[in-house]
Magnesium transport protein CorA (Maribellus comscasis), 354 residues
Amino acid sequence: MARFLKSRKSSHGASPGSLIFIGNRKMEKSEIHLIAYNKETLIEKQIDNLDEIQNGLPDESVLWINIYGLQDTQLIEKIGEKFTIPPLELEDILNTDQRPKIIENENNLTVFLKVLEYDQENTRVAGDHISMVVGNNYVITFQERVARYFEPVRERIRNNKGRIRKTGPDYLAYALIDTLVDGYLQSIENLGAVIENMEEEVFTETRKEIVQKIYRLKMNVSFIRKSVFPLKEMMLVLNKTESKFIQKKTYSFFKDLLDLSTQAMEAVDIYYNMTNDYLNIYHANVGNRTNDVMKVLTIFASIFIPLTFIAGVYGTNFDFLPELHFKYSYFIMLGLMVVIAGAMLYYFKRKDWL
């Protein structure tokens, strides 16, 4: 399967709003994780069905529902019915190839994101599709698999650190997006360190493995680029749009996310250009190495041209060549060849051709 575009054979020809899962199945069975909290109370549990959501929730609480696994289209449909999520948005939630964007309707605000992780052992950036639905008193997150992307936010809620237990779902959404953006920067930093550490190797080596390594790094940067550029667009839209689901005091935090996304985009651009430069330097080094070889061969050929001429003259089949009957002719000829070759080598050295 292509890395940059998921197969859409299953959804080909389907009507808009059809709930069809697009992507790789990463879990056998979907799971529902629930957190409900206010200033004083916290409830955290795993539930089996959506009917358990309203049981025993604290008053004026913020509800965070996390869905692990997107392959269960019936569960996604039930969530859409319960929280009035439009079918077109549910379709995008099930499409793991959906680019980052933001959609608002009368009932909720839906954010589509990617989470990025750089595997240093395999030198490969992997990504998961994350969707987030923000309502008046709830946040629903959809993940492809069980992962610890949001664990820092859960720890802040459990330990009642900062303002998260004192604010609404809009601040929770900010905290979750902030965690993902921090992951972007961490992945870019790790990949960037590998790219920067290659500099000396690129300048000095011309092995085939070098160009393969550069190409893999460029592919990883392109994979990150595919997610970071739409993220910047999404943050611009979010900061310019007045949404009823985001309080005015929370917009200052989203402006910080805009700065972080700009920083991420600038870093990706720098590393993308660096990989291009590395490829150009590699090809230039290979060309220079070939030129050096050709120069040495040309010098040797230039030295042997006059020597070959002398050998050719005295190798002719004429009957009368006076030098042939001189006692020391052979040694004189060899000496002349050595002098000519030495003079030419000296001349090439003076010209810095050697």
Q: What stands out?
A: The longest helix spans residues 248-313. The chain has two domains: 9-285, 314-350. The domain at 9-285 is CATH 3.30.460.20 (Beta Polymerase; domain 2). DSSP finds eight helices and seven strands in the chain.
